Amino acid sequence: MTNEPKQIVILGGGYAGVMAAVRLAHQSQKLNIKIVLVDASDGMVERIRLHQLAAGQKINKIPYQELLKNTQVQFLQGFVTAIKPNERKIIIKKNQNFIGLDYSRLVYALGSSVDLDSVLGVRENTYSLGSYDATLLLKEQLAKNPKSHLLICGGGLTGIESATEMAETYPNLKITLVTSSNFASDLSQKAQEYLQKVFKKRNILIKDNSKVVQVNAQSVLLKDGSEIGFDFCLWAGALTPPKLARQAGLEVNEIGQIIVDKTLRSISHKEIYGVGDSAILEPSAEIYLRMSCASAMPMGAHAADNILAEVENTKIKNFRFGFNGRCISLGRSDALIQMAEHDDTPKNSIITGRLGVFVKEFICRYTIWSLNLERSGWFVYRWPRPYKQKLISGVNQHSTV
After folding, report:
1. Cα-based distances in Å from 169 to 223, 247, 264, 359
2. How does pLDDT run across 17-40, given as a tens digit for each residue?
3. Of 239, 266, 293, which closes a domain?
4. Are residues 189 and 269 in the same domain?
5. pLDDT digit string (tens) for 78-136?
6. Are residue 190 and residue 93 in the same domain, yes or no?
7. Cα(222)–Cα(209) distance, rounded to whole angstroms?
8. 293-311 and 353-376 helices cross at what angle (nearest 10)?
9. DSSP state string for 295-347
């Protein structure tokens, strides 16, 4: 037998990946496990604040050395180019070299990016908030052209938050938001009415039920044949996961998310856990998970708990989770908190104004506080768990750590 530590590799340093890393770190020496966090960047980006960065506010990346300090977690900066599940190995490109990294358990937490390829011309002619660097490009253009026409394509939370943030920062900026469905249709009637008032007050034009089918250099073509011109276009459309899981032969859904069971293990490769935006629970789990920070951190924490249980050969648990609502910033002076059922169905109850701002900002800060406090060892991250939980058999006989 060997005394070599079991190696747990975490791909992706977002909310889910970092949470998994710091949660595992508590038991790393005691259980003789080695933890490696892999990410292409040198620091974590608070994606829930990128609209603030685009509007000119200072939002810094948080260095992984800071997030992981005083832990035994090893950080490795590089691009993951391949997963070889049959060999339990990943391939990483670091500078011009390729590195092979073995794992006993793999946490797939590579998140998502803005889909720039489903509509013709998007990648070539628009800006996005898909990354820190991409957001900086839009920030620079808006600062230089504060009286231009900004077209925002997408009526989800990113589109709403970006429109209101930029309208507050640049009152002379003409902003049009175009969306393919009814504006804010996934929120309550009360929330929709409030948003309509906010947009009207800030002179943001809404053009809903208008599907963009092509983006040109200075205009978008709609499905009905009409066009909307712009000086700059922000694409705030759907998110898409990396293609890595599909390329590796893992079981994925139609958009490429790893399909995981109730324990968050891949249904095709039990030694791989899928968490965050890049994973989705199989239908039998009966838990709806919207791509969000709110679900990513609990998934990362739960995957860590189950990996530790496997190492100790104790029972692993099914994931339980429920939403409480959605927090939407409307600039620095207003916000909308949409209360919701655990399945994310909106209640007819909202919080707005200064109280809404306080709640939204507290939750944004709580994400980073939670990671730092979890790392410290005396705080254990918790989340809403309304669903009935069952214990299942611990270690898979064909897939031991």
Report:
1. 32, 43, 41, 21
2. 999 999 999 888 788 899 999 999
3. 239
4. no
5. 999 999 999 999 999 998 899 999 999 999 999 999 999 999 999 999 999 989 999 99
6. no
7. 10
8. 20
9. HHHHHHHHHHHHHHHHHTT--EE-------EEEEE-SSS-EEEEEE-TTSPEE
Give the end of a domain, one of 198, 217, 239. Answer: 239
> What span, in angstroms and rounded, lies between the C-alpha atoms of 239 and 246?
16
* Beta strands at 204-207 and 174-178: parallel, antiparallel or unpaired: parallel
- Amino acid at site 217: A
Which residue's structure tokens are 């044949």? 225
How many CA atoms, within 13 angstroms, populate the side-chain half-sphere of residue 329? Answer: 23
Residue in the block written with tokens 């996961």 = 241
3-state DSSP helix/strand/coil % of the chain, to nearest 5: 30, 30, 40
With vertex at residue 108, the alpha carbon angle to CA 258 and CA 277, rounded to the nearest 5 degrees, is 60
What residues have CB less than 8 Å from 136, skipping those under 6 apart? 53
Helices (H) and strands (E) in the chain, counts: 10, 26
